[in-house]
Amino acid sequence: MRSFFRLALAFALLVACDIAGRLIVWGLSLPVPGTVVGILILLAGLVALRRVPAPLKETAEFLLAHLNFFYIPAGVGVIGYAALLAGDLWPIVAALFASTFLAMIAAGFAFQFVSRLMREKGGGA
Are 78 and 85 spatial neighbours (Cβ–Cβ below 8 Å)? Predict the structure, then answer.
């Protein structure tokens, strides 16, 4: 029972960082998602601590192992708006393919650039 409370406290810490980030973004009207600021708060805390506490590590591993459950609300939303999406299906499909293609090209150029830099510095293939 004691380990349950430690894991619950670690989860509460994750939620608190998220809420703090959202409040900071809302209060300062920043053009950044609150979750990103919350993650940065968590990162700063972990860097200051210089380690990841075991309960926090276990909680994070559990959440990552069950990440597919976080897609369920998005899937339900897509099904709920299926009729609306059907009207704009082709522009959505075109945008998905174009953005995927552009991201792959950008990743390829970035890899080549970094590979060239590493070769010049004598540290790469």
Answer: yes
Q: How far is CA 42 from CA 51, 67, 105, in A?
A: 12, 19, 33
3-class SS of residue 25: helix
pLDDT of residue 124: 55
Question: For the CA atoms of the chain, what is the radius of gyration?
Answer: 21
Answer for the pair 12, 55: CB distance below 8 angstroms, yes or no: no
pLDDT of residue 125: 56
CA atoms within 13 A on the CB side of 121: 8
How far apart CA 51 and CA 79 sit, in angstroms, is: 42
Is this model's pTM higher than 0.70 or not? no
